[in-house]
Structures are given as structure tokens and as C-alpha cells.
Design a protein that fits this description.
heterodimer; A: about 110 residues; mainly beta; seven-stranded mixed β-sheet; four-stranded antiparallel β-sheet; 11 strands; about 0% helix; B: about 110 residues; six-stranded mixed β-sheet; five-stranded antiparallel β-sheet; about 55% strand
């Protein structure tokens, strides 16, 4: 079956702009999590959506937001971009009903802020 | 609160040598423990997981990990390193009724020819 798809794979923005990233989970998965990965901070949890509701949230400013649609596809938005937002943004999907459930990751969206 | 510590941001081993990547956790409840691997320019994928069954867990690509409650450890091992094992490895912890993983900082495994 198809894996987790993230679009776009690469993008370049300038400070102050906003960006929207998209994630299509594996069919049947109701949970989508978003992570920010940088060389300095490692893997940082942004938020998790389950059945269109935000179930968990990391420690990021309000400029970072997300949503999930009824088909489980998810988007995340970053407004007023800062240089420090340059990172690989990873999306992961799972069934969301088991604490031991495997996360399936997409290949990420690499954002560069100039 | 749960936490994960991975000792060594970089580990270098020769091809054919033993791979040992260290992970220690902190949890007030019985933990679920995971190892994920990230190859260059890819997302993460599950290597193996411990969910309170057998303490020695075997995963993909010849990796295994042993849950040691007394040492609060879940170290990842492979008897013989291969060049294709070069990647970043992440240890993570969760617990029953928790749907969010707590991640370690990751360890980059470098394989020397």
C-alpha cells in the first residue's frame, strides 16, 4: 500500500512569509504527527491529530499550527517565518489507537528560510 | 515524566565489528520502548520495539535490543556492522494510553571500511 506522502519535498521562503506543508497518511490511519528536525535540536514533536482533533501538542510557538481533514490528510502552517524555522519537517501516520503502534514516516519537507 | 538519553551523538565502528548504541530511559510506569532508524534523506522507520513481552527483541536487518529494567536501559546491538548500517538511530519511549513518543537525541552510526 502507498506510504506517507509529504508535499512539497523542498521549498525556499524568505523571513516573514508563511508556508503550508501537506501530509497524506497511509490509508486507514487516523493519526498524523508532525516533527521538526534540525541538526542542533534533533527531533522535536510539534503536534498530533487524531480524527480531526489535536490530541497532543509540543512546545512550539503559536506561529506553528496544523489541522486534519475528514480524510485524515493533514496540513501544518508556519506563519511569519524566521531563519530558525529552517528544518526538515516530518510527518508520521499511525492507526492512533494503540500506544505500541508503529509510526510510519514520510520523507519530509525540507524548508529553507532566507 | 518520561525521558530518553542516548549516549554518544556519533558512534564509529569498523565494518564487521559489533555495533552497540546505548539508550537509557526514565519512566514512572512500565514503558514501551522503540528504536527507529533514519537513512540519509529519508524519514524514520521502525527497527524494533519492546512492549512488555520478551525482554530480548529482534528487529530488522539483524539488530536486536534487550530491555533491562534494573538498568533502565534498552541498548541496540548488531553482531557485525555492514556499510549499509550507516544511518542515524533514535530511541523512543511511550507508555500505556499515551499516544506520543518521547525521543532521544539520536546517534549517528558511522561505519569505517
Amino acid at each position: 500500500k502507498a506510504g506517507v506522502t509529504q508535499t512539497p519535498r523542498y521549498l525556499i521562503k524568505t523571513r516573514g512569509q508563511q508556508v503550508t506543508l501537506s501530509c497524506s497518511p497511509i490509508s486507514g490511519h487516523r493519526s498524523v504527527s508532525w516533527y521538526q528536525q534540525t541538526p542542533g535540536q534533533g527531533l522535536q514533536f510539534l503536534f498530533e491529530y487524531f480524527s480531526e482533533t489535536q490530541r497532543n501538542k509540543g512546545n512550539f510557538p503559536g506561529r506553528f499550527s496544523g489541522r486534519q481533514f475528514s480524510n485524515s490528510r493533514s496540513e501544518m502552517n508556519v506563519s511569519t517565518l524566521e531563519l530558525g524555522d529552517s528544518a526538515l519537517y516530518l510527518c508520521a501516520s499511525s492507526r492512533g489507537t494503540e500506544s505500541t503502534g508503529e509510526l510510519f514516516f514520510g520523507e519530509g519537507s525540507r524548508l529553507t528560510v532566507l | 515524566a518520561q525521558s530518553v538519553t542516548q549516549l554518544g551523538s556519533h558512534v564509529s565502528v569498523s565494518e564487521g565489528a559489533l555495533v552497540l548504541l546505548r539508550c537509557n530511559y526514565s519512566s514512572s510506569v512500565p514503558p514501551y520502548l522503540f528504536w527507529y532508524v533514519q537513512y540519509p534523506n529519508q524519514g524514520l522507520q521502525l527497527l524494533l520495539k519492546y512492549t512488555s513481552a520478551a525482554t530480548l527483541v529482534k528487529g530488522i536487518n539483524g539488530f536486536e535490543a534487550e530491555f533491562k529494567k534494573s538498568e533502565t536501559s534498552f541498548h541496540l546491538t548488531k553482531p557485525s556492522a555492514h556499510m549499509s548500517d550507516a544511518a542515524e538511530y533514535f530511541c523512543a519511549v511511550s507508555s500505556p494510553l499515551v499516544y506520543q513518543l518521547i525521543w532521544g537525541a539520536g546517534t549517528k552510526l558511522i561505519i569505517k571500511p
